[in-house]
């Protein structure tokens, strides 16, 4: 169904005037960046909306990126010029003196972070409209400003366009897939909420007692020098930490190998893994895979490496060498752990991949330990919550793409958290001095959220879904219905040209439906129960929607034919299909559509439509109907 009404008018205008659309994007970004104008002008909201048009295929992404970057850069440049020209007198001019708190925040922000605040400020809403002007007012070198502002503007544009692009892409797709994705999102949201609650509870329980427990541990090490050698280096700054960490690392590695061996023979854990694989298998289709890829590349080695280097560069710049040593120690050791886990658990060396849940978990956890100390006590749990959510998202995507099984993911997250905590204890024992956590927070989160796009482009093959063989065999002759509400047997085998088959059915009065995705859910929400036309949802087989979807009226219902390729590896003239009966139905009181009633045992509506040559029919075992095309 094509857009109608004013939506169609907007689309038509944009498609007919692509150059003006670029200028429009430029003006939005420009106005959003001008001194103080950005406070009242919803430029970011407009850019997100335009990103939706990119996702719908109406706009070109690279064109929008260039125009948005240019608008942001020039808008900031004018603000910088105003500050550079009027200096402190700017604070007395209207309307600047109307916003004393905002100006004070901007000055404090610039004084704290220096020139790099121009880069950070581009991504921080409250201070974005004033930072360039304050940089000019406080005498920042023009060449340095131009370089930093240009880089920030280029990176900022896709950051604001991407949410709209994902939404637009979702709007373009939608059917049964939408409900599956909705269920997947719902499960993820529930898991995130549970993670948030658990982390907060654990943090509130542990933090008040941490000092006393560490003091008790230190006293214990003095009474038990032999056993205490394991922990004395962590809690006693007078003792070298490397020996304790090396011994603890060896113990953790031995435990990991033993745990992986136990998981390989435990029928209970094997069953859990199969339940997890079966759950995610039900949600595999071309539209759920796309957004999940971004989550997977959150923890790709390139994404983690760039985040490690970015934070390390900042620590070197601020001469925080003790922090740097522990940061790099976590990075190197956890990467080695991750590679060894893959070797032991997968019998493969994954040196550059998305399999390293251990590495991502360790870095995210230690990042939380570093930045939490800079917060007031009541807010210190938040870095751990953010890290926990990032870890959960990546672990969820790893399970979705079968990078690792459930038991391996859980084991990696658990041991990685313990390892980062041990190094965190050693670090805090030797460094009671707090430092600004905001630069590290911004640097880490920015790279972790943006670099996955680059990782995706460079390592597309790492997101290939290697579905478990046992699942593929089990699902070879069945398909899942709307909202995963049951399975229909693929009891029709077709040896014929699909185009010719479609034409023959069309000539016999059958109607062809485009296998829609997200659009059908919108139509189901929009349509009344007694509407003349209701959407017909797609089904999924082996993660793919139908190659051919046709229907014919049957009384007050529909007889529907759904056809898939018999094998994903060989696109030939061999197909599997199912014939189902549908009646008017309403799900959840809002989704009005042609609902599944039953698998059509009587195949006469189909055979009657194909009764004329060149088709032959055979009844195979297991009640499978074979339709063959006569070959010349």
UniProtKB/TrEMBL annotation:
Q: Where in the cell is it found?
A: Cell membrane
Q: Which UniProt keywords apply?
A: Cell membrane, Membrane, Transmembrane, Transmembrane helix
Mark the transmembrane ranges: 23-56, 62-83, 145-163, 183-203, 245-272, 292-315, 327-346, 358-377, 384-402, 408-427, 439-459
Q: Which organism is it from?
A: Marinicella sediminis
Task: Please report the name of this protein according to its UniProt entry.
Answer: DedA family protein
Predominant location: membrane
> Record's InterPro entries?
DedA-like, VTT_dom
The family classification in the record reads: Belongs to the DedA family.
State the annotated membrane topology for this chain. Answer: Multi-pass membrane protein
The lineage's top-level taxon is Bacteria
Give a single Pfam family match: VTT_dom
VTT domain location? 41-164
């Amino acid at each position: 169904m094509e857009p109608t009404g004013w939506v169609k008018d907007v689309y038509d205008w944009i498609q007919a005037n692509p150059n003006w659309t670029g200028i429009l994007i430029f003006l939005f970004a420009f106005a959003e960046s001008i001194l103080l104008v950005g406070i009242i002008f919803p430029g970011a909201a407009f850019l997100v909306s335009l990103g939706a048009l990119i996702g719908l295929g109406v706009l070109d992404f690279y064109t929008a990126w260039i125009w948005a970057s240019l608008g942001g850069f020039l808008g900031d440049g004018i603000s910088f010029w105003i500050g550079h020209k009027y200096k402190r007198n700017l604070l007395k001019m209207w309307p600047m003196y109307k916003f004393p708190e905002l100006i004070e925040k901007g000055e404090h922000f610039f004084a704290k972070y220096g020139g790099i605040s121009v880069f950070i400020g581009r991504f921080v809403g409250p201070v974005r409209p004033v930072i360039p002007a304050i940089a000019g007012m406080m005498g920042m070198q023009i060449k340095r400003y131009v370089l930093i502002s240009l880089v920030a503007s280029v990176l900022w544009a896709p950051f604001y366009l991407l949410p709209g692009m994902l939404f637009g892409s979702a709007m373009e797709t939608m059917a049964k897939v939408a409900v599956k994705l909705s269920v997947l999102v719902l499960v993820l949201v529930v898991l995130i909420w549970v993670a948030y609650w658990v982390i907060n509870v654990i943090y509130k329980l542990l933090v008040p007692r941490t000092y006393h427990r560490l003091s008790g541990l230190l006293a214990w090490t003095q009474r038990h020098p032999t056993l205490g050698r394991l922990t004395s280096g962590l809690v006693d700054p007078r003792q070298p930490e490397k020996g304790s960490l090396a011994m603890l690392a060896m113990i953790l590695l031995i435990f990991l190998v033993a745990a992986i061996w136990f998981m390989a023979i435990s029928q209970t854990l094997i069953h859990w893994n199969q339940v997890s694989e079966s759950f995610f298998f039900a949600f595999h289709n071309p539209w759920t895979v796309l957004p999940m890829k971004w989550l997977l590349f959150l923890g790709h080695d390139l994404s983690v490496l760039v985040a490690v280097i970015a934070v390390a560069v900042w620590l070197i710049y601020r001469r925080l060498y003790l922090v740097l040593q522990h940061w790099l120690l976590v990075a190197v050791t956890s990467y080695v752990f991750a590679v060894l886990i893959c070797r032991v658990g997968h019998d493969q060396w994954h040196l550059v991949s998305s399999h390293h849940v251990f590495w991502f978990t360790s870095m995210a956890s230690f990042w939380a330990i570093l930045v939490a100390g800079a917060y007031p006590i009541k807010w210190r749990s938040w870095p751990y919550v953010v890290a926990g959510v990032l870890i959960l998202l990546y672990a969820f995507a790893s399970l979705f793409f079968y990078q690792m099984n459930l038991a391996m993911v859980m084991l990696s997250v658990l041991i990685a958290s313990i390892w980062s905590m041990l190094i965190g204890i050693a670090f805090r024992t030797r460094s009671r001095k707090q430092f600004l956590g905001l630069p590290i927070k911004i640097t880490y989160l920015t790279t972790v959220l943006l670099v996955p796009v680059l990782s995706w482009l460079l390592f597309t093959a790492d997101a290939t879904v290697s579905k478990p063989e046992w699942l593929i065999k089990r699902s070879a002759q069945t398909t899942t219905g709307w909202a995963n509400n049951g399975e229909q047997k693929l009891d029709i085998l077709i040896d014929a040209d699909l185009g010719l088959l479609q034409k023959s059915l069309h000539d016999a009065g059958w109607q062809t439906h485009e296998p829609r995705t997200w659009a059908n859910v919108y139509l189901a929400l929009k349509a009344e129960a007694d509407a003349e036309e209701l959407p017909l949802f797609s089904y999924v087989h082996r993660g793919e929607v139908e190659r051919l979807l046709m229907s014919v009226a049957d009384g007050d219902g529909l007889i529907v034919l759904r056809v898939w390729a018999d094998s994903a590896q060989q696109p030939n003239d061999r197909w599997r299909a199912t014939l189902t009966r549908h009646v008017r139905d309403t799900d959840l009181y809002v989704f009005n559509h042609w609902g599944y009633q039953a698998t059509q045992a009587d195949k006469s509506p189909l055979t009657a439509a194909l009764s004329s040559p060149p088709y032959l029919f055979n009844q195979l075992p297991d009640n499978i109907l074979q339709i063959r095309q006569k070959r010349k």
